[in-house]
Amino acid sequence: MLQVGKPYVFGRSGPDAYDCSGLTKRAAAQIGLDLYHGATTQWNRGQQPGEPDRYAYFREWGLIDDLPVDQEAVLFNQDKQNPRIMAHVGYYDGRGGVVQAGGYGGRGVHYNPLDRRRWTHYAIYSVYWMERNEAMVDDTILRRGSIGDAVKKMQLALIALGYNVGKNTKADGKFGPATEAAVRAFQVDYQLPITGTWGPGEEQAIDRELEEELGPPDNDDEEMILVPRGLLEQLSRFLA
């Protein structure tokens, strides 16, 4: 959820400011889905046949009262005066929260508990787009045996918060037993599932903590969204 806190500016789709459909447009772009900039058109094209990267991307849609609470979804708010217009759009994470630009609960990009009174409709992406997202999310998970710059970056972040990732607390870019122990300790401290693996949820938690300790990163606008499991996870390096 790296985008949370950035300002709302009508007509913008990032990287430093967003309106509601600009946020969902840029988020979907992370998995190769080319959404139109506009909540009404995003709703309509998701149900219409056409080019697979721009149309028919919803497999299910309906009234907000029928939203499956354990499913990630795109939420829409229908205009009260004109039912042909969707006045607002945001992402539901399947865990009780919504990320959105503008709208209820805050200014700019913000994350709030789901309030069904604020939304009228939901839509769930097709199996194709969900599977594409899951494959991309899997590629981002670090685990015992992983090596490289991503591991080193994770180790340096853990060290900055006082965790021991190995002999002499060195960041060697190798995900070994000591690094796994540090990850598990971090997950316990931040009330995350204790898996010993490192993914978007852990990145979000440590980014928030490091920002409080050290201030925002210089290149925050360059980060992508992967928000918690599933679609928002892949959307979280960008959306969070």
What does this structure look like?
It is a single chain. With 240 residues, the chain is an alpha+beta fold. It has 2 domains: 20-126, endopeptidase fold (from Nostoc punctiforme), CATH 3.90.1720; 149-239, PGBD-like superfamily/PGBD (Muramoyl-pentapeptide Carboxypeptidase, domain 1, Orthogonal Bundle). It is 32% helix and 14% strand. It contains 8 helices and 6 strands. The protein has helices at 20-29, 39-45, 127-138, 149-160, 177-189, 200-214, 231-234, 236-239; strands spanning 58-63, 73-78, 86-92, 97-101, 109-113, 121-125. A 6-stranded antiparallel sheet has the order 1-6-2-3-4-5. Strand 3 (86-92) and strand 4 form a beta hairpin. The termini are close together.
Report the sheet with the most strands, covering strand number, pairing sense and barrel closure: 6 strands, antiparallel
Query: Which outline best applies?
Result: elongated
> If you consult CATH, what is the topology of the largest domain?
endopeptidase fold (from Nostoc punctiforme)
Going by helix content, strand content and strand pairing, the class is alpha+beta
Structure characteristics:
alpha+beta; elongated; 2 domains; 6 strands; 240 residues; 8 helices; 6-stranded antiparallel β-sheet; endopeptidase fold (from Nostoc punctiforme); Muramoyl-pentapeptide Carboxypeptidase, domain 1
